[in-house]
UniProtKB/TrEMBL annotation:
InterPro entries from the UniProt entry: EXOC6/Sec15, EXOC6/Sec15_C, EXOC6/Sec15_C_dom1, EXOC6_Sec15_N, EXOC6PINT-1/Sec15/Tip20_C_dom2
Localization of this protein: Cytoplasm, Cytosol
Location of the Exocyst complex component EXOC6/Sec15 N-terminal domain: 58-227
Keyword annotations from UniProtKB, A to Z: Cytoplasm, Exocytosis, Transport
Exocyst complex subunit EXOC6/Sec15 C-terminal domain ranges (all copies): 417-763
Gene3D superfamilies: Dsl1p vesicle tethering complex, Tip20p subunit, domain D, Exocyst complex subunit Sec15 C-terminal domain, N-terminal subdomain
The name this protein goes by in its record: Exocyst complex component
Purpose of the protein: Component of the exocyst complex involved in the docking of exocytic vesicles with fusion sites on the plasma membrane during regulated or polarized secretion. Involved in polarized cell growth and organ morphogenesis. During cytokinesis, involved in cell plate initiation, cell plate maturation and formation of new primary cell wall.
Alphabetized Pfam families for the sequence: EXOC6_Sec15_N, Sec15_C
Highest taxon of source: Eukaryota
Lineage: Eukaryota, Viridiplantae, Streptophyta, Embryophyta, Tracheophyta
Length: 800
């Protein structure tokens, strides 16, 4: 065994003072060699200084010094070396014996191990074959599974079951692509899998594009169907309101035996249509499967966000296209298609929002709706500004309100649309008033101002009962002659149509209580349009008493009809009648009524003036008072009695009373006017007594109307003769100076003008005032009545 000694590090000895630099370099080199250090620095230094011979000299010197050391060491250890050599020789003999022993053992081992090694080699070879076979089987199994997945993917592709095909591709990529033992199969998979995915994406995108084309038609049909269902629901509500109004009317008439049951139908049909409970997605063809399939496939492909954006942009473009209004087709004809398309669009979007699994967000739908509302408002503003027919505006408004009702069910705000409708409320009613003005003019122009003749009950119901202008609830006998002309039912139909159109425009417009608005426009219709049309006819077309009488009778019927108009407006507006009746105004056609009665009175006064012209035949200085009244009075009485017998068949009692009172006041005024006129220079007491008889006859005529009127009204009618009666009473009074007493004057002479009293009293002459009568009565005592009258005249002149 050789011992290993640690090599000690040699440090160069310090140079003595007398050593040269060459000696010092030699010592450093020796020290570096002994320590096994790198001599590169010495070599570089020698060549850098240009003295490599010095380095060689130092190396040779070091070699010589070491040889001597080796000799010293060998001499010092020679004996040990000899011993070691002897030991090695003895060890060599031992090694030879050991070698022979090992050779023998090896021969024996070889003899024994050769069969075993042969078996082991066979085993190893068999094991390798088995491993190779197992690996082949595993590879084949992997390939079989891979081919099965590929076959399954192809099958799903042929059946357009793209999702399952993609799942197969994902399984192939995850489980087999990296583990496929076949390089050919692996290259095939790397090439075909992206191609198949691209094919699926193209196929699904094409199906989605076809769906986008189809959904536009489906949306229009869906919108029309949904709006139609809303219209049907509204119609059912109207029918229920009509039944309710009938029930209220029967209750108002106290018909307790009539029982009404308001059956409310289910209003779920539109929900079934739109929500899909009546079939596949609610309407034939309304199928979102292609959309959801495309979305699901793109999700599987990892292209979810791209598809969302693609869907939103395409639907936004479709909506923008739906906003186009054709200039070739009138909007009245195309508005239903226009609004139905938009309604269907947002019904579909609502379904996608609720069932699409995040395909479109609520914010995006709201943005689309805001855009649509803005565009619809712009279109409505433009189209309404061009329309000059109220019915056209109403048709579009009704459809827009149905659109609002339909989309409000899906949570879309429609306030902006309702604001546009409310904004054009005044224009609609102005157009409606203009149409009614024309219709009134046509109806009045066609009227012959003759009483209507009704042969059948349905005519009576259509022209009388439908406007509640009957005076009795008892059905009359037929044929029936109505107290009004055809103007009344014709104008009532126009007004009723106006009310229904106004209520129709105001209904479903977002304003719950609109009766005040309807009432305002109804007031305008009656006070401005109808009243103006009647005034125009009265002032221009009435040429006889019969026509004037018929017009006055019509006005009385219109007064009852106006009550019906306001009740009808309240009922249609859903306002209780008791509330509507609180705000009742005066008769809105009062100007036309007064004009009709004034016209009738004027014509009657003209007739009366013809008879009153006979007052010129009165003997104002008669010796005896006439016993049966003057001729003019009898003629006037005959005319008035004939008038009453005729007018009471046509005119209502109150109208007849007002007309007669006006005529009697005119007669009274004409009698006083005759006394006051220049044609009568003087008259005596007998003439006044004759006028007293005339006035009594007229008062008797007024009193005889008590059965037709009432006693109080007959007295009021007689008050029309107040001026002539008080004038006659004053002239016949024994104390005419009582006229100066304020109390007596207020009680008995309140209708007299003192100036007329002065003028007429001055014409009164006593019997002694005959021509040449003063010669026989000179110095006789003056009549006290004459004296009192002269005093009255003097006092009144002083006051004047």
């Amino acid at each position: 065994m050789t011992s290993t000694k640690t090599r000690r590090r040699i440090v160069p000895a310090a140079a003595e003072n007398g050593d040269t630099a060459d000696k010092q370099d030699q010592l450093l080199l020796s020290s570096a060699i002994c320590n096994g250090e790198d001599l590169g620095s010495f070599v570089r230094k020698a060549f850098a200084s240009g003295k490599p011979e010095t380095l060689l000299h130092h190396l040779k010197h070091f070699t010589k010094s070491k040889e001597s050391e080796i000799e010293d060491v060998c001499r010092a250890h020679y004996q040990d070396f000899i011993v070691a050599v002897d030991d090695l020789r003895s060890l060599l003999s031992d090694v030879d014996s050991l070698k022979s022993s090992l050779s023998n053992s090896n021969n024996k081992l070889q003899n024994v191990a050769v069969p075993l090694l042969t078996s082991l080699d066979a085993y190893v070879e068999a094991k390798n074959k088995c491993s190779n076979i197992a690996l082949a089987i595993s590879s084949l199994s992997t390939c079989v599974q891979l081919m099965e997945l590929c076959s399954r993917a192809n099958f799903h592709l042929t059946k357009n079951n793209f999702y399952m095909a993609l799942k197969c591709l994902d399984s192939i990529e995850t489980n087999f692509q990296d583990k496929t033992p076949s390089a050919t199969l692996k290259r095939m998979l790397e090439k075909q899998i992206p191609a198949i995915r691209a094919h699926i994406e193209r196929k699904v995108s094409k199906e989605f594009g076809d769906w986008l084309v189809e959904i536009r038609i489906v949306s229009r049909n869906l919108g029309q169907l949904a709006i139609g269902q809303a219209s049907a629901a509204r119609q059912r509500e109207e029918e229920l309101r009509i039944k309710q109004r009938q029930a209220e009317e029967q209750s108002r008439l106290s018909l307790r035996d009539c029982v009404y049951a308001l059956e409310e139908e289910e209003d779920d049909e539109i929900d079934g249509v739109v929500d899909g409970s009546n079939g596949v997605n609610g309407i034939s063809g309304f199928d979102l499967t292609p959309l959801y399939r495309a979305y699901h496939i793109h999700q599987t492909l990892g292209l979810e966000d791209r598809f969302k954006q693609y869907y939103f942009e395409n639907r936004k473009l479709q909506l923008t296209s739906d906003f186009q209004v054709s200039s070739m087709t009138p909007f009245l004809e195309s508005h239903q298609t226009f609004f139905a398309q938009i309604a269907g669009f947002f019904i579909v979007e609502d379904r996608v929002l609720r069932t699409g699994g995040g395909l479109i967000s609520k914010m995006e739908v709201e943005n689309l709706w805001d855009t649509a509302v803005s565009k619809m408002c712009s279109v409505l503003e433009d189209q309404f500004s061009r329309m000059q027919t109220a019915n056209h505006l109403l048709l579009i408004k009704d459809y827009v309100s149905l659109l609002g009702v339909t989309l409000r069910r899906f949570g879309y705000p429609i306030d902006a649309l309702l604001d546009v409708l409310s904004k054009h409320r005044d224009k609609y009613h102005e157009l409606l008033l203009s149409d009614c003005r024309k219709q009134f003019a046509e109806a009045l122009a066609a009227d012959k101002f003759e009483q209507m003749y009704m042969k059948k009950e349905y005519e009576y119901s259509m022209n009388v009962l439908s406007f509640q202008i009957q005076t009795s609830n008892i059905m009359p006998a037929f044929p029936y002659v109505a107290p009004f002309s055809s103007t009344v039912p014709d104008c009532c139909r126009i007004v009723r149509s106006f009310i229904e159109d106004s209520v129709s425009f105001m209904s479903y417009g977002g304003q719950l209580e609109f009766f005040d608005v309807v009432k305002k426009y109804l007031d305008r219709l009656l006070t401005e349009v109808l009243d103006g049309a009647l005034l125009k006819v009265i002032n221009s077309s009435i040429g006889g008493v019969t026509q004037a009488m018929q017009m006055a009778a019509n006005m009385a019927v219109f007064e009852r009809a106006c009550d019906f108009f306001f009740r009808h407006a309240a009922q249609l507006s859903g306002i209780p009648l008791r509330i509507a009746e609180r705000g009742r105004r005066q008769f809105p056609l009062i100007k036309a009524r007064d004009a009709a009665e004034e016209t009738l009175s004027g014509l009657l006064k003209q007739k009366v003036d013809g008879f009153l012209s006979l007052i010129e035949n009165v003997n104002w200085m008669a010796d005896d008072p006439p016993q049966g009244g003057n001729e003019y009075a009898n003629e006037v009485i005959i005319f008035l009695e004939t008038l009453v017998s005729t007018a009471q068949q046509v005119l209502p009692v109150q109208v007849l009373k007002r007309v007669l009172q006006d005529v009697l006041a005119h007669i009274s005024e004409m009698i006083v006017g005759a006394l006051l006129g220049e044609s009568v220079k003087r008259f005596n007491i007998n003439a006044i007594m004759g006028l007293d008889v005339d006035v009594r006859l007229l008062e008797s005529f007024a009193e005889n109307q008590a059965p037709l009127l009432s006693e109080a009204e007959a007295n009021q009618l007689k008050s029309g003769l107040a001026e002539s009666r008080q004038m006659v009473n004053l002239l016949l009074s024994n104390h005419p100076e009582n006229f100066l007493n304020p109390v007596i004057r207020e009680r008995s002479y309140n209708a007299l003008d003192y100036r007329k009293v002065v003028s007429i009293s001055e014409k009164l002459r006593d019997q002694s005032d005959r021509l040449f009568g003063s010669f026989g009565t000179r110095g006789a005592k003056q009549n006290p009545k004459k004296k009192s009258l002269d005093a009255l005249i003097k006092r009144l002149k002083d006051v004047n």
